[in-house]
TrEMBL record:
Biased composition (Basic and acidic residues): 359-383
Gene Ontology molecular functions: DNA binding
UniProt entry keywords in alphabetical sequence: DNA recombination, DNA-binding
Species whose genome carries this gene: Haloquadratum walsbyi J07HQW1
Name recorded for this polypeptide: Core-binding (CB) domain-containing protein
Length: 393
């Protein structure tokens, strides 16, 4: 009877089989942890993140010629780590936080709805990676964090890339059906109804007040107000009709579930969880949370086990799901779907405040089948014309 191989022999065999980077990373982390226990002087330093960020800022600004340019980028970095994520010390920083920076910088950090350009994001990620390198060079973060910083590729020959993600209508429908059944008329349900029903900009939805909603008329008014400006100022002001069950859902939320909150300007924000106007980043999280297929009664299209998938288990990690979508992607999906249904560019311009040119460039993103189906009837009608040359030759 052969002897059972030892742990050392098993490890040596695995290492000889071209092991994955993940496997090597786990071994390296284990070794580092063991060494740190035996040699405390090699363990990671714990320092206030605000102090470290300030030191890095001073160092970086001494190296560059365009201080204003880099100062702005450093401001974003500081806002994300200290305010958005809430990292108090270097010990608190996790690999998940490092991965989250790109999503925050591309979408959540902007007042406008359109995401950050790939070119600008690429520059900001280089700076972010430099900061992570600064941390591990000074023994304040593990080396493996650098691998969590992926620099986006930009196809300069093809021009600035358009964000081609959009919410699939099937997921939108499943999400609203799930929320109507299990989360009826709570603030997250109402937010998703309005995002999927109107395709608004995140900032536009964020700025709505209770008195912008008219139940009797079934409309939501987008009014340009001090402190909650619309993108195109007065030109963005409009009324949008709410159809089907949506007016009743909004009314029931205001009547039964909305906390009686007044903001600093004496206005009643429409979307609130009880602590003032809901934040734009919270709207972002709501969108990611309720566009995960596995959370709204659909199977996982990526063959992940929801019980083991971080994106499925943690709402704060919902953005990691390949199928989850931000408010911008819901807006894109809504506009594309309306175009597929034959709604005119002028009608979409009135409802969504986006010009036909920008619709074509950023929001109308049909796949090949959808594009074919849009024009199918035109060719069929032409083919039925007895004077049409090629078909009747």
């Amino acid at each position: 009877m052969s002897e059972r191989p030892t742990d050392v022999e098993i490890l040596k065999e695995r290492l000889s089989e071209d092991p994955s980077e993940e496997f090597l990373e786990r071994i390296a982390s284990t070794v580092v942890d063991e060494i740190a226990e035996s040699f405390p002087e090699l363990s990671l330093k714990v320092r206030p993140m605000a102090d470290v960020l300030e030191e890095f800022r001073e160092k970086k600004l001494e190296e560059v010629d365009t201080e204003d340019h880099y100062s702005t980028k450093l401001d974003y970095l500081q806002t994300c780590l200290l305010q958005e994520i809430g990292v108090e010390t270097t010990e608190d920083l996790t690999s998940e936080d490092v991965e989250r920076y790109e999503q925050w910088r591309k979408y959540d950090s902007l007042d406008r709805e359109e995401p950050l350009s790939d070119n600008t994001l690429r520059d900001d990620k280089y700076l972010f990676r430099e900061f992570i390198q600064y941390l591990f060079e000074h023994r304040m973060a593990p080396v493996r964090f650098e691998k969590s910083v992926e620099i986006p590729e930009v196809d300069y020959d093809a021009g600035e890339g358009v964000d081609e993600k959009k919410l699939d209508p099937e997921i939108a429908e499943a999400s609203l059906e799930f929320l109507r059944k299990y989360k009826y008329a709570d603030v997250e349900h109402v937010a998703m109804e309005l995002m999927c029903h109107l395709g608004p900009r995140k900032s536009g939805l964020w700025g709505r007040d209770v008195d912008d909603f008219d139940y009797e008329e079934g409309i939501l008014e987008f009014d340009h107000k001090e402190g909650t400006q619309l993108k195109n100022n007065d030109k963005s002001q409009r009324e949008a009709t709410l159809y089907d069950e949506v007016p009743d859902i909004v009314r029931d939320y205001i009547k039964d579930q909305r906390p009686p909150v007044v903001d600093e300007e004496g206005r009643e924000p429409l979307l609130t969880k009880g602590d003032g106007r809901i934040s734009k980043s919270t709207l972002q999280k709501i969108a990611y949370k309720w566009t995960r297929p596995c959370k709204v009664g659909l199977g996982c299209p990526h063959d992940h086990d929801p019980n083991e998938c971080e994106a499925a288990q943690k709402n704060n990690a919902a953005f990691k799901c390949p199928s989850s979508r931000a408010p911008h992607h819901i807006r894109t999906g809504y506009i594309t779907d309306q175009k597929n249904r034959g709604v005119s560019s002028d009608a979409i311009q009135q409802r969504c405040d986006v010009s036909p040119r920008v619709q074509d460039q950023h929001y109308d993103l049909p796949d090949s089948s959808e594009e074919r189906e849009r024009y199918e009837d035109e060719f069929k009608n032409a083919d039925d014309d007895p004077d049409f040359g090629f078909s009747h030759a």
